[in-house]
Amino acid sequence: MKSKPAVNQKEKVDALMAQLEHPFKAEIEEVRTIILAAGKELYERVKWNAPSFFYNEVDFAAFNLHQQSFLQLILLFPKVIVSDPAGIMEGDWKDRRQMKFYSMDDVTQKKKALEKIVKEWIKSNV
Predict the structure, then answer these.
(1) pTM of the predicted protein model
(2) Domains in the chain: ranges and CATH
């Protein structure tokens, strides 16, 4: 079965972000930048009323904007859960993990580990 061509909806995500009132808005923007720089194959769209990332219609991650006490990123693993030597992913669900960011400093500290996770996900899950 041939996969659908990816349709980047960056403009929709940018419009959502322009309207967004969230205590971690700056951190959301920074995590978006990190993910897209690390995974040039990934595209953005609005899913579940939040920025999300995908490759060839396979979901990679989405923010949970309902959470207000920290920034929550849900990572999806349709095939295999990638390694996380830095220990920044939480949970033991069959096909997903979460990452939590508590400040811009926290985003900066987790940047390299997040980049590795993005790259490994692309290799392992597409």
Answers:
(1) 0.91
(2) 10-125 (3.90.1150)
